[in-house]
Amino acid sequence: MLQTIICLGCGRVLDQASNAIRRHAKLMNTALGYVRKGVATEEQISYFGSRLVESFNEAQTAWDAYREHLTEHGLLPRP
User: Fold this and answer.
1) Does 1 score more than 80 pLDDT?
2) What three-state secondary structure class fits 35?
3) Closest CA to 35 of 56, 58, 52, 57
């Protein structure tokens, strides 16, 4: 059986993972900016704390989907 090494779905899944990681990085950099300036309020700290966990989990889920997609193509071994 001939196995497809890559497909158009590879790009779609990679884009989803990359975008999720960029969203997390943007949020983290915004939070770090407040911390560096020393202007973060308790409310902002609470918001960023919960939102950073959420965005990290979204990025991890998207990255896991990308890894699984590449595994299905035989490019990566099963973890």
Assistant:
1) no
2) helix
3) 52
Burial class (CB in 10 A: 0-12, 13-18, 19+), 34: middle
Q: Tell me the Cα Rg of the chain.
A: 17
**Phi then psi for 5, rounded to 5 degrees?**
-75, -45
**Three-class SS state of 41:** coil
And the tokens for 47?
């918001």
Largest CA distance in the chain: 60
The Cα 78–Cα 42 span in angstroms is 43
CA–CA distances in Å: residue 62 to residues 35, 52, 69, 71: 28, 15, 11, 14
Tokens 């299905």 map to which residue?
Answer: 72
The predicted pLDDT at position 17 comes to: 98
pTM for the model stands at 0.86
